[in-house]
Amino acid sequence: MAAAVPGYSPGFKKPPATLRLKRKRARRSEPDARQPCGAAPRARSAPARRNPFSSLDNAPRRPARRQQGEPAPPERGHASAAPFWQFFESAGEDQGARGAGLSEGTDVLVLPEDLHLPVPAADVPTSLRHEFPADWSIKTRLLFMSSRPFTWAEHLKAQEEAQGFARHCRAVEMELPQSVQEPKLSTELRCAFQQSLVYWLHPSLPWLQLFPRIGADRKVAGKACPWAQDEALQQALMSDWSVSFTSLYNLLKAKLCPYFYVCTYQFTVLFRAAGLAGSDVITAMISPTTRGLREAMRNEGIEFSLPFVEESRSKKQKNSEGNLETEVAEHPEVGRSPEDGEEAVPSDDDDDGFSWLEEMGVQDKVKKPDAISIKLRKEKHEVQVDHRPESLTVVKGANTFTLLNFLINCKSLVAVAGPQAGLPPTLLSPVAFRGGTMQTLKARSMNAKARVRLAYEDIFSLEIVGPVLPHSLHLLTVLLRSAQRGAFSAVLYTHEPTAVFNTNLGNASTAFKKEAVSEDLLKCGLHSKTLDQLSQVPTLGKCSIRFLEMKDYACAWKP
Prior knowledge:
There is one protein chain. The chain contains 15 helices and 14 strands. Among the domains are: 139-198 and 440-558, no CATH class; 226-309 and 386-437, no CATH class. It has helices at 15-27, 158-170, 187-196, 217-220, 231-253, 291-299, 307-330, 350-353, 355-360, 371-378, 380-384, 399-409, 470-483, 514-520, 528-534; strands at 107-110, 139-146, 198-202, 259-263, 268-272, 283-287, 393-396, 426-429, 437-440, 442-452, 455-468, 487-494, 547-551, 554-558. The strands form two sheets. It has a seven-stranded mixed sheet with strand order 1-10-11-2-12-13-14, covered by helices on one side. The radius of gyration is 35 Å and the shape is globular. The chain is 28% helix and 16% strand. It is an alpha+beta fold. Helix 3 (187-196) packs antiparallel against helix 13 and helix 13 (470-483) packs across helix 15 (528-534).
């Protein structure tokens, strides 16, 4: 029997030795040989394994090596040197780790790295102006950003809030200097800010969000709606709504209300007083519309126009006439009859169009299309634009009063089923009216860290949430021009169905006197500068202002 050797076991190996063997087999390396301290580490002989969970999107990318002779990347420029709307481009954003020096309560705004690159000239206005064009769309949210803080808009005193409401009700114009030295200590500025946030609403149901109404079923679902199954309550709500709607129209006709909106669950109507948007008569714009709604308006004797359909029709007619003239010039015999040379005109009579079936004796075997199908065929251009911005319908003059009665008596104005069943449309106005409730937009100021390349810069922001009407947007920019010393940027979020209200109707007459009309509208409750802006002819078309930047008291915008 052999003598026992200390540390030796013939039947099994110790755990350290077993782990060492497994490690060697897995790596397929040579026997373990410890290197002396300070020696260079040995390179791996086997290639690195590929991560089975990686993809092209999340795989780490190695930075490209700069070749000899290639210039070094330019130094980081200041964030204000680039147009503001570049900050919100989604492409090229780097979601890297945040700096260790930031506090936990500080918001970080990640910006693209190429802030020094200019925006393409096609997307940027070629010239700066003192005022931006009138925007008749309703904004749902505004985000103002500046290098100066917005502390003057926080924690208004009770007296300042009361003065702002009183100035709004009495239509007192604010008078601010070009630059306010101490905005936080300026009572005039804070009262004017409160005044610019006021709007009027009907109906007023605090537990429901009454704007926007199009596509709002999810937000309304699950809320208490006691009128959904109560017809008597529905009739009471509609009766009260009809009184408020009529009151607004009477104020509009008397030029004591400049405009107002009627927001239903299917479409939105904008009523504008005579003298606004270059029109000398009252106008009503409806968008989006359907063939059924337009047919019901025709049956009520309401005369209206479809600007985009008529424009498309006239363009096609001009193109066809031009092609026909070209073809006739090349081939004179085209389009002429061999007998008298007169151009053959197709008949629009539906009965004559199927007379050839009787001549062949198969009129009973072939099914004729009904009158509705024939009518839809003729109106295919109008039907194709249903539920689209091109379905914009315009009513002018005395027909707007007929439209008022039509909307009051229209049963499809209110949803019959769904979360919005029995809920009257929302009325939005810049001035008080019968049954209207005073509401204010929600304002909140924030401080954020904007990441520009490898550094962080302080950016102060002011957020406005709610149905921002055109007059409020203009008043807020006038305030910020003075408070932020003519340097700020803004992102505007538009309620898309209302963007088409910026269409130029082309109804400016030669006898239209802007001065006389402006004098009549001075009592409508709007600021004189706001009234001048809204009196201009719309130039944005189907678009609306998305980005706004002011620098040195000059505006630049991007639709």
